[in-house]
Amino acid sequence: MAWDFDAFNPQPAQRRATRQKADTIDTLLTNYSTKPRRHSYGATSCKQQQFMSDIIKAQASGEAIGNPEEQQRKLAEFELHIGPYFEIIRRACISKAGNQAQGEDLAQTVILRAFKYWDSYTDQGKGPKNWLNQIIRTAYISSGMAEAKHQNNRVNIKADADNELQDDWIFDQADESQLGPSAEQVVISKMSTNEVMDAINQIDPIFREVALLNLVDGLKYKEIAELLDIPEATVGTRVLRARGLLRSLLREKAIEYGINPDPKKKK
Amino acid sequence: MSNLSCHEAKRKVHEYLGEELSDNSKREVDEHLAGCSRCQAEYDLERTISDMVISSSSSSDLSLGFYQRISSSLRSELE
Description:
The structure holds two protein chains of two kinds. Chain A contains 15 helices and no strands. By secondary structure, chain A is mostly helical. Chain A has two domains: 5-118; 152-256, no CATH class. In chain A, helix 10 packs parallel to helix 15 (232-256), helix 13 packs across helix 15 (232-256) and helix 14 crosses helix 15. By secondary structure, chain B is mainly α. The chains are: A mainly alpha, B mainly alpha.
C-alpha cells in the first residue's frame, strides 16, 4: 500500500515541495564533500563547481514544481546547461586577462552575455563549447584587454617565453635540486593542501590557469588552444612552465616550512 | 629499454600525465620508465604533484565568492 503523505502532513502540497527544495539546497550547502576528480571538457571539476552544479539541479527540479514563470525557467535551464562550464570560463578568462580580478570580471561579462543570448543558442550535438568560445573571444576584444595586452611588454615577454629555450630552462630548474626525485617526492608529499594552494597561487595566472584547465578540468591541449586562441604548442609549453615553477615553489616552501629538502646540508 | 633519451622521456612525462600522448608514444615512455629508475622517480614525483594540485584545487574555497557573485548577477537580470 502506498503511503498518503498528505494525510499525515497538514501543509499544502506546494509548500511542502518548496520546503523540500530548500532542504535539498540546505543539505548541499551543509554536507558538501570534496571529490577530487579529473574530467573531460564540460564536466564539473572542483568543489565550487560541483557545489554550483548541485544547487542548480536542485533549483531546476524545484522550480519545475513551484515556479512556472518563463524567466525563472530560462535561468534554471541556463544554469543547468552552462553552470558546469563556469569554472572553465573563469580559468580561461583569468588566463587571458593575466590577473585574477580582471579575469573574473571578464568571466562575469561572458556568463551574463551568454544568459542574455541563451534563447538563440541551439545545441547541434556538439555541446555549447564553440558557442561559449565565441562569446569569450568577443567579450575579451570588446573589453579592451586584447589591445592592452598587445601593448604590454611584460605580457609580450611572457608570450615570447613560450619557446623551446624556456622548456630547457624548466628542466634545468628541476635538475638544480641536489636531491634525487625520490627524496624530493618525500619532502613535497609532506606538504598540506593549503601549502600547495599557496604555491599554486604564486604562479603567473597566464601559465597557472592553462595548467589547471588541463590538469583539473581535464581539457586537452587542442581544446585549451581553441578556448584561448593560442597555438597548441604554446599550451604545452605553458603547462610545462607552470609545472616547473610549481615544483620550484614547492621546494622553496618546504624549506620555508622547515622541511629540510637536503638532510646533508645544514639549514 | 626504448630508444628515448632521458631528456626526451622527461619531456614526454608531462604530456603523458596530461593524457596527450598517442598509444605508441605512451608505450615508448612506459618502456623507458621500466628501465630507468631515475626517470621512473621523476614520473612518480610529477604524478604526486599532479594529484596534490587536483586535490588542493578541489578543496579550495577561493572562487566561491565568484560563484556567489555570478548567481546574484544572474538573478538580478530577472528583476
